[in-house]
Amino acid sequence: CLATLIIMLVGDTYTLINYVSFINYLCYGVTIIGLIVLRWKKPKIFRPIKVNLLIPITYLAFWAFLLIFSLYSEPIVCGIGLIIILTGVPVFFLGVYWRNKPKCVNRLIESMTCWGQKLCFVVYPQCGSAEEE
């Protein structure tokens, strides 16, 4: 979010849309790859909707073409999009991967979560105090 805010303050909206669209298509492709891997490694899992594998493989072929074309035609925009994605790596390691955090770090993360939930109007009951209930 911080990188997006900086880009919005410094750059133009068209460039920001290019960054975000590259990131979205990259995430769509990774999702389809995950679907194919799960269908191959865990074929017995319950799936409410099951499609022929030809559809995601065809989508993946077109996705790869568009992604390679984007990387070729606008490498700087794609590189900045990848950098925007990589800004989430430290957040992942601090928030999810690091299991034995000190209590002060856990309290800080919980207070930031509550603050963000209130800011975005998605406050859940466990965030508030007992008096609010």
Automatic annotation (TrEMBL):
Gene3D superfamilies: Amino acid/polyamine transporter I
InterPro entries from the UniProt entry: AminoAcid_Transporter
Keywords attached to this entry: Membrane, Transmembrane, Transmembrane helix
Transmembrane domains' residue ranges: 16-39, 51-73, 79-98
Gene Ontology molecular function: L-amino acid transmembrane transporter activity; neutral L-amino acid transmembrane transporter activity
Source lineage: Eukaryota, Metazoa, Chordata, Craniata, Vertebrata
Keyword Transmembrane (UniProt): yes
Keyword Ribonucleoprotein among UniProt keywords: no
Record's protein name: AAA1 protein
Organism, scientific name: Thryothorus ludovicianus (Carolina wren)
GO biological process, one term: D-alanine transmembrane transport
